[in-house]
Design brief:
By secondary structure, the chain is mostly helical. It has a single domain, classed as Arc Repressor Mutant, subunit A (Orthogonal Bundle), CATH 1.10.10.10. Helix content is 52%, strand content 0%. The chain has helices spanning 6-16, 21-25, 32-42, 47-56. The protein is globular and about 25 Å long.
Length: 71
């Protein structure tokens, strides 16, 4: 992964599952700042590009658990 810390990876996984920033921020694991930082680390200009990069990099795999922490 392109230097993404665990919480930033979680942010990308939640983003890829379709959660908006408020829903992501409502988790006890990820803040809104993690979303923006993750986009920067992925070199993505927007949420859509970040999701595409997440699939390309294997951060998100179709059919995996919707919760990034594996519960």
């Amino acid at each position: 992964m392109p230097g993404l810390a665990p919480r930033k990876l979680d942010a990308v996984r939640l983003l890829a599952r379709g959660l908006n920033n408020a829903e992501i921020a409502a988790t006890q694991y990820v803040t809104r700042a993690h979303v923006g930082n993750a986009l920067d680390k992925l070199g993505a200009r927007d949420r859509t590009q970040a999701v595409v990069r997440a699939y390309d990099l294997g951060i998100v795999v179709a059919g995996e658990s919707a919760q990034p922490w594996g519960s």
